[in-house]
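May I ask you to review the protein record following this short note?
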Amino acid sequence: MANTFTPTTNANAIPTVIAQEVIRQLPANLGLAKFVSKDADWTGTEFASYGDTLDIVKPGSLTAKKKTPGTPIVRQNPNADKVSVTLDQHAYIAITQEDITKLLQKPDMQEKYAQRMAITLAEQVEADGFALHPQITNTVTFSPVSTEAEIDAAYRALRSKFARLKVPMTEAKALFEDTSVTDKLLSVAKYTSGDYVNNKAIIEGAINRIHGINNFESQLVPTSGSPVAYHNIATTKWGIVLASRPMPLDGNGQGVRQTAFVDPGTGLSFRMTQGYDQDNLGTNLTLDLLYGWAIADANQVIEVESF
């Protein structure tokens, strides 16, 4: 029968089912990676391999001129700048499932596998983004930030830093901060209470925008030293770029099935590989992605050290 569901047809369906569920759950587990610019915002999406370098072209600088009556205008030929992003991060999760039919027949199990894959890969991608902090040349220190007055002063300093770096006023700015910073903000009523902003109630620990800065809690902010310094990152969309490209599907016809999926929200491109493992008598599933991070505009990203 054409529609008979067998272990073979079940196994063929599994990669698509799980990959689509991973993509559905991925955005909820990303912060920095979801906010920053993607290489697709600048250039194309052709296939790439580990170690490839992408040259992302940025518009050149322009200068405002003044017109003098009776003289011709001076045309500019701005030299385009570029940011090089190396695809040097290749993350994967590989599992072996002996009874693939049972996995397909239990949607809740598929969802759990996909959720764990999404969380694990999202944490790795985010951690690699925060690892850029030693390359950030602009720094603001949040210390101390315990009282309302100290928090206000810290955010004014951050706002002022963006302004003096001539970041466009219309650009959305976000601080991706450690839980220790978020906890201090939540202790001050005016940053959370609807009595102060737009008559909104406190919902799920939400924090109002402070001096033009949006706040997002992260569990992956790196630390160093003693006392512990947290290397939080404040940026606009264009301060950092996350590049990801589809990987070749050379395994098709070589004993495995490979499919590429792209998360439209983050631009991250995944490859699902499926094959039979004769040693473990089960179906192998490998979900991997290739990506790289880089500072796109040094004047639009600031390291915020907190203690």
About this structure: Residues 7-57+89-128+245-291 form one domain.
